[in-house]
Every structure is written in C-alpha cells, then in structure tokens.
Amino acid sequence: MPTDDLPETFHVTTDEQLRAVSNLTRHRIMAVLRFEPATITQIAQRVGLAKGSSSYHVRLLERAGLVKVVRTRKVRGVTERYYAMAARSIELPDPGPGQPDMLLRNAVADLEASPVDGERHVRMAHLRLTEEQFAQLGAELQALADEYQELSDPSLPDVSLAFALFRPAPREQADGDSK
C-alpha cells in the first residue's frame, strides 16, 4: 500500500485510543506496520507473540482507528487480512501534570530491549538556551527526523529515533542549602 494514500497525522483524542497506544506490545505492532502492511501471522512473528495475542492487540488498535485493513486475499479458503497504520504519524495529547509520557516510556522500553551488543547512539545533554534557541533547536531536530524518515526504505533494518527537548521542572532547593 503506498503511503501517499495515508493521512499525514492521526490525532489521538479518546481514552480508548490513548489506552490502545499506551500499551508497549501495541506500540511494537504499530512499529511493524509503520512501513508496510502485514498479516496477523507476520505481525506475530516480527513482534514475537502468539497469533492469538497478536490478533487481540491488532483488533484493539483497529477498533481505536489506529490501524486498518488495507488488503485481503484468500489463502486455502481463509481470508487473510493485511493491516497498515491509519496515518503516517500519530500525535498524542500532552500528558497532564504528573502523568507519564507514553511515547518516551515506550521509547525507553524499546531501547532497553534492544541488543546490548548492537550499535547505539544515546546521549543526554543539559543546555541553557534562550527561547529563540530552544525553538530553533526543536525545529532543527524535527526537520532532521523528517528528512531521514523520507529516506526510510522498508527493505532496510529498523532504526528508532526518539528525542525530547524540554525545560525541566524547576528544582526546589533542599532544606539548608544556600544560594
């Protein structure tokens, strides 16, 4: 299925949709479907699930509108369904105060599950930026991610990129600390 037919963004707006994308297994299923349609059997193999579990999670994603059937074919009298993402990207609502950021939580879980002996580039930097520099860096990071997403080839191995540019909550000074 050509991705040209897909809407650019799917906005998660309901509790059902948020629950669907918050689950790590469903997050990994959506990663499988990011570049090309797949059957329940193919999804199960790629994610490392039983077919029944894969089917259950895909049905929840389909009910939430996040994935859809894009093609069917008959195989030995059984209708095989190919699922794909409902849009090129999914936009999650900002988490409320004190709530976890599901996107980052899933990214960290994927990083922790990646092969330890595999190549990784992980870095955290603490910066002090003006509002203009902050906005410029955010735009540059987004443009770089978009540029490489356009270069993505489904025949190549998966690579995940996660970044977060944010201003941390002000640190409260501990009792007795001097300025």
From TrEMBL:
Annotated keywords: DNA-binding, Transcription, Transcription regulation
Transmembrane segments: none
Keyword Transcription regulation: yes
Residues forming coiled coils: none
SUPFAM superfamilies listed in its UniProt record: Winged helix' DNA-binding domain
InterPro entries noted in UniProt: ArsR-like_HTH, HTH_ArsR_DNA-bd_dom, HTH_MetalResp_TranReg, WH-like_DNA-bd_sf, WH_DNA-bd_sf
Gene Ontology molecular functions: DNA binding; DNA-binding transcription factor activity
Domain HTH arsR-type span(s) in chain numbering: 16-95
Record's protein name: Transcriptional regulator
Organism for this UniProt entry: Streptosporangium minutum
